[in-house]
Structure formats: C-alpha cells, structure tokens
Amino acid sequence: MLVYLDSVICIYAVEGAPSFQARARARLAKAVAAKGIPVISDLTWLECRFKPIRLRDAVGLAEMEAFLNSSDVLRAPITTTVFERACQIRARHNFRLADALHLAAAIEPGCDLFLTNDHRLGKFPDIAVEVLG
C-alpha cells in the first residue's frame, strides 16, 4: 500500500507541536506496520524545506531532510502527466494549485491513500483521503 504524505504531515512529524507531532508519528508508524510505504513528491520536498531554509535553521533542515530522505520514503516525481492531472483536478474541484499538484502526484504513481490534515480535501473522490484528526 502506497501512502502519499501531504506536506503538513511531514512537517508535523518532524517539527510540529507535540500534540500534532505525536498524531502524525503514530499514524505513520501504523501505516508502516501495515506494510504501507510513505510517498512524497518534489512539491513535498520543496514545501517542507522552505521554512528551515528561510530561517537559516541548519539543524531543522537536516532533521527534515533526514525524514524526507529516509529509506522508507519513496519520492514520486512531478511529471508532465502529473501537471495535466493537476490541471483537471483544479478545474473540476477548484482546489488551490499546490493541493491539486499533491493529489495528482499521489494518483499518478498509484497511491492507495492520501494522508493530510486539510479537511477541504477530505471529499476528493479520485483517491481515498484520510484527514488526520
């Protein structure tokens, strides 16, 4: 089972407030225990590294990159096909560009689940979406 991680899930797991961090880490551990494989995209890579780079937080950046580069995490490229699907998602569902790209990046490589904390994405019909509660 491939589990796409929306950027916020990665951010919570690495640098989130204790309650968010605990929930994100517990959900990720549950997925991995069930033979789930976490998947991120190039967009996740960008969004998760932005804040530590902006703040010049070398330790935070190293922690985030260690998480994102973990051998357990697959990285799905954002291809032309992903961009085309994102365009369709954005046009049909009126999602923001980044959300449409994340959803498309999850669908194209065949992810089974999209893990997020964004309630607006919870009713997206083309992939199972779990909103971390």
Describe it for me?
By secondary structure, this protein is α/β, with parallel strands linked by helices. It has one domain (2-127): Rossmann fold (3-Layer(aba) Sandwich). Helix content is 56%, strand content 15%. It contains 6 helices and 5 strands, in the order E-H-H-E-H-H-E-H-H-E-E. The chain has helices spanning 7-15, 18-33, 42-54, 58-68, 80-93, 97-107; strands at residues 2-5, 37-41, 74-76, 113-116, 128-131. The chain has a 5-stranded parallel β-sheet. Helix 1 (7-15) packs across helix 3. The radius of gyration is 14 Å and the shape is globular.
Write out key terms for the chains shown.
single chain, 133 residues, alpha/beta, Rossmann fold, five-stranded parallel beta sheet, 5 strands, 56% helix
